[in-house]
Amino acid sequence: MTTPLLKVTGLSKRYFSGYRRFRAQYNEALAPISFELGQGETLAIVGEAGSGKSTLARILVGAERRSSGEILFEGTALESRNVKQRCRLIRMIFQDPNTSLNPRLSIGELLAEPLRFNTKLTAAERAAQVSDTLRKVGLLPEHADFYPHMISEGQKQRVAVARALMLSPKVIIADEALTALDLSVRSQILNLLLHLQKEMGLSYIFVSHNLSLVRHVSDKIMVLHKGKLVEKGPVAEVFENPQHEYTARLIAEQTRQGRKR
C-alpha cells in the first residue's frame, strides 16, 4: 500500500474564550478532521467564511498550532522535523500579494529571503535560483530589480507563486489565491499552477469558496461548515451526488450565480 504524501488524522483547533463558573471555556474553530493527499494530487477545501478552511490551512503550513490530532508527511510526524525542513515541504500562496509581499524589498530580495534563512547557498547561487524561478513563472530575470508597486496585479501573483516555489516544496497551499484576480488573469495563473504541477510533481491544496474553479482543477474535495467536515470525496462524485444538504446548497448557489453572468 502506497504511503500518502500527507496524512492528517483527528486534527482540531479550539481557542480559549475565558472562564465560566471557574471553568475554562473554549470555542471550537475546527472539529476533528482527517484526510489524505497523494503526490501530484489536488485537494479542494471549500466552505463559506467562518467554515474553518483557512484555520486548517494555517495549521498545515505551521502558522498556527493545532489543539489535537496528527500530521504525517511521507509517514513521518511533521513536528519531528525542524522549522527549516518543514518550510521546504509545505509552502503557501496567500490571497492578496499586496499584503503578503513586503513593498520595501525588491522582488529579487523577496525571493532570495527564504533561501537566505533556510539554505547554505552563496549569494551568487541564490541569485541564479531567483532568475531561474522567475522564468518558471513567466517573468523575466530583470524583474528581480523591480519592486512590487512597479508591476501589475497578475505579475504580483506570479511573484507570490515564485516565492512559494523557492524551497522546492512538495505541497503548495493556495488560500483563496485566485479570488482577487480578474477572470483573464485568474485563468493565466491557474494554467501556470497546473503547468508547474505537471512539471514538478507538486501536490496542491486549494482553499476556496469558488466551487466552479475547484471543480475543474481538483481530484478530491472537502466541504467544511462551521468548523465541521460535512462531506468529502472525489470531485465528480460530490458534485454529481452531494450527500449533505449544505453541499447541495453551495452547488445550487454556484449554479445560479453562473447563470446570471
TrEMBL record:
| UniProt keyword annotation of Transport present | yes
| Record has Calcium as a keyword | no
- The superkingdom listed in its UniProt entry is Bacteria
List the SUPFAM superfamilies hit by this protein, alphabetically.
P-loop containing nucleoside triphosphate hydrolases (SSF52540)
- Identify the Gene3D superfamilies for this entry: P-loop containing nucleotide triphosphate hydrolases
> Per UniProt, which keywords does this protein have?
ATP-binding, Nucleotide-binding, Transport
What GO molecular-function term can you cite, just one?
Answer: ATP binding
Q: Which InterPro entries match?
A: AAA+_ATPase (IPR003593), ABC_transp_ATP-bind (IPR050319), ABC_transporter-like_ATP-bd (IPR003439), P-loop_NTPase (IPR027417)
Q: Locate the ABC transporter domain: which residues?
A: 6-251
Q: This protein is called what?
A: ATP-binding cassette domain-containing protein
Q: Which organism is it from?
A: Shewanella jiangmenensis
Q: What is the lineage of its organism?
A: Bacteria, Pseudomonadati, Pseudomonadota, Gammaproteobacteria, Alteromonadales
